[in-house]
Fold this protein.
Amino acid sequence: MKRYLHILLVLLWILPSCKHEAIQPITDTTVQDNYPEAVKSIIINKCATAGCHNAASYTGAGGLRLDSWQYLFDGGNNGAVVVPYNTANSSLLYFINTYPELGPTALPTMPYNLPTLSRDEYDIMRNWIEAGAPDKAGNIPFNTEVASRQKIYTVQQGCDLVAVIDAEKNVVMRYITVGKTHDREQPNNIVMSPDGRYAYVSFWNAALIQKIDTRADSVIAEVTTPRAFQKAIQLNEDGTKLIACNWYSQDLILINTESMSIISNLGTAVQFISGFAPNGNMFYATSQFGNTVYKIYEDGSHTAISIDNKPTAQESAPGTPDPYRIIISPDKSKYFVTCTNTNEVRIMNTASDQLIKVITIGNNPQEMAVSRTEPYLFVSCMNDTISTLEVGSVYVINYTTGDIVKKITGKFFQPYAMAADGRNGVLYVFSRNEDRNGPRPHHSGPCSGRNGFYQLYNIHTLEPFNGKRYEISVDPYGAVARFSK
């Protein structure tokens, strides 16, 4: 429990200079009536008070407004404070709890400079969140328009979770527990079906791939793989098949996504695959060491392509590109490869598999995301040092011309995963923040390690969307939007 007490004392969502004036009567009864009665008596009388988290004061109280049920789920300046059904990651509970045996505690205790909640009051709040944090009519937050709601999904490698972000409010709306054991299984990749109906998650330390229903946000099926350590996964163009590669055995397997069963093992002829991109009846695949991209067909046959016009090689050496991730342009005329050894993006022609252009970018380019509303390719450079408190950048490349449009330096710290929400014109950038020199997390959760964070950028202007830094559980590692446009 000591790590729960090790918390930043100056908290952005709590008003440090909270002035507790005499509580004024609330004339708008609809504000009080949104909460269930027992919860209302706690929040309205002890939290949403004059000088703190009411309509008049919340902007000075870390942006957290509590005088109405619906405003609670806007979160504060650091993101969600209540995640329905998930008490372990609802940080509001940490600060109102003075009973360590009941769960995490954090300082300063809320209500600020007022009597603490009783054990029964804390239990009321905890049980309410565990039941989904409904309003007085039983409505669960984010439970409407389940077939069409835009969301962003990201795997939390340090906590065996998938975080689900609501694209309207931009806050975490659910955490999905993934994996099968209590050991850390490290989910490392997530991909989305073309219709946004299902997501698929692979793991470093578990021999399985799981399927998530994006309407219910729950795991509904899984397939056991020959062994753990799946380095990369990808769906074919219609979402009926999924390809996965094992980092240690080099096995390639093809999976039926409807039955979640293995169709075939495609063998071990290709080596050290680190990324896939579908194209027609085959997949492009990067070999992480050397200069090779493969074209892999569903019958297991393949061809090797050099991305630097030298003989293909599968070993890293000075000057080798070392291809990492791969993505195809929306018109399928080009594919782009991040090269970690040479700090480049290489553009290849899909018709001829010939090199078109080499673009030098920042240090250690990793993941890519593509916009379908602007001609932009986004590339995260995880170790591109800007200052001691800012590590990492995002390069924006015009995928039509191959020109660099902008280098975004947005106070990241080890940015890795990204997701482009074409519906709302927002780019999500996730910082792993593993290094102890990174920004100190706003709070600590139940998992060991440092919380990560994400920031939003306007896809059209390439400027910050709102200037917030949203905290999220430990080590956000892969991300995808439910609907690309």
